[in-house]
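Ticket closed. Logging final result for Succinate dehydrogenase assembly factor 3.
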Amino acid sequence: MFAPDHGFRVRRLYKLILRVHRGLPAELRILGDNYARDEFKRHKNCNSDEACVFLNEWTNYAINLAKQMKPLQQAKKKTVGEYLDPTLLDYMTEDQLIQLYQLHKAALGNDGPPDSTIDQQKK
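Final structure:
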């Protein structure tokens, strides 16, 4: 099913993500750490195909975030992250869309627009 070093690779990737999160502002770090921990727990017993996709996506995330955390990049751009390609929404399950929306709401915190405003923006 999995290579003998699979568990080691997953733990190493998880630790790398937490290390990269150290460069984020405090509130983003907490949000990112909690989200990563939950996702890694949820996918602990997934099949090998899902594990391959999961690890590739999280590896890409870690690489992209590490590039953005470089001091020179932070000096040029005052932002972290990138926009989600809207075409990816077509491939998401309903549960994934709900989770994405909840993450969106958590990222906005109390300062975000009310739900009705977001619903109107979607139309």
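The chain has six helices and no strands. No further action required.
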